[in-house]
Amino acid sequence: MNLGVEKKLMLRALEVSKRALPDCQPNPPVGCVLAIGENIVAEGFTQSIGGDHAEVTALKAYSGSMVGVTAYVTLEPCSFVGRTPACAETLVQSGIQRVVVAMLDPDPRNNGQGISLLERRGIEVIVGIASDEVSEFLSPYLGLS
Prior knowledge:
Number of strands: 5
Helix content: 25-40%
Distance between the termini: 33 Å
Structural class: alpha/beta
Largest sheet: 5 strands, mixed
Radius of gyration: 13 Å
């Protein structure tokens, strides 16, 4: 996939993430875009506490085949079960084959484990697309600034 297209789709996920505020707090505002090639087929953002995370919201908004679908997620999918199921596992169960992540989740319960889970299950994962822009926005919500 073209790096410019990948960045454009991740920046769209960043815009979508802003719609999570303020209701998502204390969870970080995360956005997810599902795309086939350059075409966005669904979007989602983190809901209020105890509600669906961005990836689940986007998956629920899409009803087509998962063949060729890529998820663009601003923050690493969670690998642990809290108030909601682990998003990394939900992505695996969806049948998606490719996930692009802007930045790793610094939460010690995750911090690379979501990526590892996806990769162990055969999903192609790309990390770092539009990381500067996403990090600048998300850092205050992750306790990094």
